[in-house]
């Protein structure tokens, strides 16, 4: 008997949220013998619901919500010995994982397209004791993203992130990072570091064209921009996609990294999958093919 849990974030999806929830329920009832539905009320609920489903040996856990809810669902499964198959119906602003998995961004199409016969493995990133599915950003752009409020996200989508990030870049604050990549230490001076596990970051689907959802690697890109002129030169390289180092952008692949500021008296927060994360220093690593996901 196949049991599935559908976790719904009722604050995602706007006016059509209830309609999407009904469509998802009808679709999933065609594939599972038992379907349990739980609604989130606060941050952390989706993670807890997913964790409980894993302990109760559910066959599948599915999430309906934005990137934050999807991250919570994945985080709830990541530490479990038994991990149910994972799926989601995107209702968020950016929906990077949906883009990387070629899941339709239109919720109705995503629901119609769902099939239990179509799965793939998915790498999961780990930063300290938390998990991510797409990106860890450190520096000027993420500092700006951390300040984008929910209303701006809803109204402007990924444009809100881009505008805020560009404003912050124009201030040209750079940081001196100490980065240990797979055991090799180096110094990097940059306004922004981006560590991605998929091709899509911030809604830009070709930012890391070589990245696959299950290639067992993390990708580090950073702007070589000690001055504003170099920042301006680096941004076009970044937006057209990075698959090798250039004069303006650094590029490395790795399995594990430790990142800190050379000035230990400074404080700098990370941004993890669009939400504020831990302050530096952080340890980041990849968990290869850690989940099986519907796509």
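^ Assign residues to that structure.
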């Amino acid at each position: 008997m196949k049991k599935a849990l559908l976790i719904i974030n009722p604050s995602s999806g706007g006016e059509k949220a209830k309609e999407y929830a009904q469509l998802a329920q009808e679709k999933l009832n065609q594939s599972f013998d038992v379907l349990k539905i739980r609604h989130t009320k606060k941050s952390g609920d989706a993670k807890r619901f997913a964790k409980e489903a894993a302990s109760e040996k559910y066959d599948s856990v599915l999430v309906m919500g934005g990137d934050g809810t999807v991250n919570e669902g994945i985080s709830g499964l990541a530490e479990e010995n038994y991990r149910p198959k994972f799926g989601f119906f995107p209702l968020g602003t950016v929906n990077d994982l949906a883009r990387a998995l070629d899941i339709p961004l239109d919720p109705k199409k995503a629901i119609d397209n769902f099939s239990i016969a179509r799965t793939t493995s998915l790498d999961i990133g780990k930063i300290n004791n938390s998990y991510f599915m797409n990106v860890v950003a450190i520096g000027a752009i993420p500092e700006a993203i951390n300040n984008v409020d929910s209303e701006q996200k809803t109204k402007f989508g990924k444009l809100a992130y881009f505008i805020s990030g560009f404003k912050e870049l124009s201030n040209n604050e750079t940081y001196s990072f100490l980065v240990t990549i797979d055991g090799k230490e180096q110094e990097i001076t940059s306004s922004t570091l981006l560590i991605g596990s998929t091709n899509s970051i911030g809604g830009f689907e070709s930012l890391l064209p070589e990245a696959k959802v299950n290639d067992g690697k993390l990708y580090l890109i950073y702007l070589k921009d000690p001055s504003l002129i170099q920042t301006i030169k680096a941004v076009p390289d970044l937006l057209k996609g990075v698959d090798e180092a250039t004069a303006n952008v650094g590029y490395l692949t790795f399995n594990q990294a430790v990142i800190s500021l050379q000035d230990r008296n400074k404080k700098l927060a990370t941004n993890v999958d669009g939400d504020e994360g831990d302050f530096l220093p952080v340890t980041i690593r990849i968990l290869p093919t850690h989940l099986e996901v519907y796509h």
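The longest strand covers residues 282-294.
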